[in-house]
Amino acid sequence: MKKTPFTLLLLIFLLNSCAEKSPKEKISKVDTKQANSIGLVIHGGAGTILKKNMTPEKEAAYQAALEKAAKKGYEILQNGGSSVDAVEQTIHILENSPLFNAGKGAVFANNGNNELDASIMEGKNLNAGAVAGVTNLKNPISAARKVMENSDHVLLARKGAEEFAAAQGLEVVDTSYFYTEVRYKSLQRAKEGDKDKAASYDPYIKDYKYGTVGCVALDKNGNLAAGTSTGGMTNKKWNRIGDSPIIGAGTYANNETCAVSGTGHGEYFIRAAVAHDISALMEYKNMSLQEAAKEVIQNKLKNMGGDGGIIAIDAKGNLVAEFNTPGMYRAMVDEKGNVTVGIYKE
Ligand code: ASP
Question: What is the mean predicted confidence (pLDDT) over 113-142?
């Protein structure tokens, strides 16, 4: 065939329309109308968080920490950074604060160690990474990201996860870094089996087993990401692992639906597949993010006896914080950079 400009154009058109799109391309399709919308939600744990148990100083400390983390994430998104970067760096701030049950402020396991779990997921390709039961990594969320980006796996545990993260150049700390008096005393109380005392002793959070952190974000390219990091439950035994490092339970992200991070009684979150269920209700039942989150947290999870909550954002930038406990530490930043911090049920 003689190659006139017309036949060349025809050829290009035919090649384009016949090319089989890879599943990744199909998943990452972005609604261009929403491509410039950004947003971010964080949580710092759900539980029996009541105003009457708070001092003004404690409340202010939480508010300041949540606001600082949310603003950091927003700044990254506003400057054109990816949602995965925003999630990782926002969670660093929460992990580095002793206020939350993640990183520095992690609770103690029954064996006297701090065993940390974390996971991260990106919505554009359903890629995910997680670590469980690590004891010497300063920022477990970064280890989860390394697993996602630099390994063939999704979930690495304990010694192997620690070795992998160290080989990836992540900061390793002495286990004494995770010592905080408050959490250590909570363990002693819990060991005595005096649960009520343990709960009311902890000045940070009444339920000694809660306090996980999480972040979900939507970036300028329409990509969603979610991450969760935790010390798990005080007094946990036998290397118990909760929902936080389990993709589909504590963390999930899909550009076609939403990004979710959960906090609460992990065993129930795993059994209810909480984070994926919210995404699935949107995908298969066409529910809005709000409806899906409500259905899973207020009906399914609650009816099973599970307490806790989630934060989520959808592909259009709708922000949600849904919980069935008296409170959940949380902050939202909308497209314009307006930050709303919440602690109790409002
Ligand atoms: N979900 C966490 C766990 O069960 C605890 C929490 O969210 O506070 O390990």
Answer: 98
